[in-house]
Amino acid sequence: MVGYSILLLPATTSAGVEKMKYTIPAIQTPYQGIVFNSGLEARWAAFFDDMYWSWAYESFTMRGWIPDFLLKGKEQNYLAEVKYFPAFSGWSEVLPKMRKGVADTHYESHPVFLLGGLIECTTVEGVHIATIGRAYSFKTEHHLPLYVVDYTLYLSNKPIMGRRTDTLKEAVRAVGENYKQVQVAFNTAGQLTRWLRGKENQCSGQ
């Protein structure tokens, strides 16, 4: 198995990421009539639209936590949090607040999606697949990768959002090097959110 990552934010050094994390405030970004608290959140919303996934932004408040997104899956809804951490260990800063928020609700038994600033492209048995984040279980305290194949989100081998109904293995065989589709979607979303913030005078490809 080999892999590499695609940044969703401007490339920087590890030291630069840490500095950005603590000293540079998030830039409010409008998209689809909604003002997002950060450009990264807006980029994820644009990506969800590119994938034809149904979403709502900060649609309700839980105990001490406002989930960034509610994503509507095939059989149930999922909560998603967006943060840019250089490593998964960074999530330890916010997981306690999220755990308190879902306590004694039906979401406590559902995995929560942790979405960051990059996607991982991995080759498995000669086929490239894209990992867009992690699904974290507060019950088991384990996390599993979230895969995207052909506009469909997979948790383990099961499709949970999107148009496909077959297993991950079947979808990978059918689609092939689908990570390119995901890369294009993220790049397009990034151009859109930078344009909306006024950083560019036009949005290429739009």
Q: What does this protein look like?
A:
The chain is an alpha+beta fold and 206 residues long. The chain has one domain (2-196). It contains 5 helices and 11 strands; from the N terminus they run βαββαβββαβββββαα. The chain has helices spanning 14-23, 39-50, 95-102, 168-175, 179-196, and strands spanning 2-7, 29-31, 34-36, 55-57, 69-72, 77-82, 112-124, 127-136, 143-149, 152-155, 158-161. Strands 1, 4, 5, 6, 7, 8, 9, 10 and 11 form a 9-stranded mixed β-sheet that branches. The chain has a two-stranded antiparallel sheet with strand order 2-3. α2 crosses α5 (179-196). The model is unreliable at 1-24 and 200-206 (pLDDT under 50).
Strands, helices and their partners?
Blueprint: E1 2-7, H1 14-23, E2 29-31, E3 34-36, H2 39-50, E4 55-57, E5 69-72, E6 77-82, H3 95-102, E7 112-124, E8 127-136, E9 143-149, E10 152-155, E11 158-161, H4 168-175, H5 179-196
Parallel strand pairs: 6-7
Antiparallel strand pairs: 1-7, 2-3, 4-5, 5-6, 7-8, 8-9, 9-10, 10-11
Q: What shape does the CA trace take?
A: globular
Strand content: 25-35%
Query: What is the arithmetic mean of pLDDT?
Result: 80
Low-confidence stretches: 1-24, 200-206
What does the largest sheet look like? 9 strands, mixed
Evaluate the radius of gyration. 17 Å
**Annotation field: number of helices:** 5
Distance N to C terminus = 35 Å
Tell me the number of strands. Answer: 11
The oligomeric status of these chains comes to: single chain
What's the domain count?
1
Taken in chain order, the helices and strands follow as EHEEHEEEHEEEEEHH
Q: Helix/strand-derived class? A: alpha+beta
* Helical proportion, percent range: 25-40%
